[in-house]
Design brief:
alpha/beta, five-stranded mixed sheet, 12 strands
């Protein structure tokens, strides 16, 4: 026959009015069926435990323990209460237990919105790391677009990686991945770039005249886009380059430069990577181009997601090494 909770006005109403600190004591008393043994296990005085039992009886509207001969026996309601109370307290303990991620058995697909240049830097080391540590995890890189912030907010995109300040993402949590700077690239043996003075880096440094005489290949993500941080720096320096073409892919610029007399402003890491693959030369611009803070942004909905936090940590570690 099912046991129902006894009627008690003290059992109704808001939890705020209940002394929930009594619950661990009640469970110990029910499990030991002894005020003395419960006191010993909880390191409390018997008077404190007895007082707690009296308050619990008033809270639940039931005697909980009754004396039968020389021993204490649980009431039918206490028999019903004990397993439920034990399970509830265990659930509460789990709320305050540090959780861990089983990386090896994780099955998840992460989506990262970023520029092709970031993909070029991150993809290979990320694949190697996932293959070794989390073979059930896959990653999809997608292009940045005007709708990306909305998809990021809804957690349809896991990470958005781009320079700070390009888009107003102030409300999103983020981490700085690395600092980047721009350099000029030109094909080796470029006819308009004879040997010139060296910059602090030891690389040849362009003059304004040399820069303005050269054809220019620009990065522009869309037809109406003003360009990039490099374009902003050119405007501030009051330079109007002889733009001959533009592309929405950073990684195309080194190939276009190698096959033409155009020069381009690109990220230093991209230039260094392509310098090993293409016949290009790296030069220092004569004007100041602000350094870029490359950041990873994510949705507040994912801030406490342990698997997502693990993935973010992998991206940060890879970024520190590129």
């Amino acid at each position: 026959m099912p046991i129902s909770a006894p009627e008690s006005s003290s059992r109704s109403g808001s939890l705020r009015a209940k002394n929930l600190n009594l619950l661990p004591l009640v469970l110990e008393i029910l499990q030991t069926q002894s005020v003395t043994r419960a006191s010993e296990r909880l390191h409390l005085s018997q008077s404190t435990t007895s007082e707690g039992l009296a308050k619990a009886r008033a809270l639940f509207g039931d005697e909980l323990l009754i004396r039968v001969g020389r021993s204490m026996e649980k009431t039918p309601f206490a028999e019903w209460l004990e397993p439920r109370l034990a399970a509830s307290l265990e659930d509460l303990r789990e709320l305050f237990t540090e959780q861990t991620v089983d990386v090896e058995s994780m099955r998840r697909h992460f989506v990262v919105a970023t520029a092709d240049y970031i993909v070029m830097l991150f993809a290979a080391p990320l694949i190697a790391r996932l293959q070794e540590q989390a073979p059930g995890v896959s990653v999809q890189f997608v292009e940045l677009s005007g709708s990306t912030p909305r998809t990021l907010e809804r957690a349809e995109v896991d990470l958005m990686v781009l320079p700070d300040g390009v888009i107003d993402l102030g409300s999103f949590p983020s981490n700085s991945l690395f600092e980047e700077r721009y350099v000029v690239i030109a094909r080796k043996g470029h006819p308009s770039l004879p040997p010139t003075r060296r910059g602090r880096s030891g690389r040849p440094k362009l003059t304004r005249r040399q820069f303005e005489r050269c054809l220019y290949a620009a990065y522009r993500p869309s037809r109406d886009s003003p360009g990039s941080a490099a374009s902003d720096a050119l405007r501030r320096a009051e330079i109007e380059p002889r733009e001959v073409l533009s592309t929405a892919q950073f990684t195309l610029l080194p190939h276009l430069v190698e096959e033409s007399d155009a020069i381009a402003l690109v990220q230093e890491r991209l230039a260094l990577k392509f310098q090993r693959l293409a016949a290009i030369e790296i030069l220092e611009p004569f004007f100041e181009v602000p350094r870029l803070d490359i950041r990873a942004y994510w949705s507040p909905l994912l801030d406490a997601d342990l698997e997502h936090a693990w993935f973010r940590s992998q991206v940060e570690e890879i970024a520190a090494a590129v």
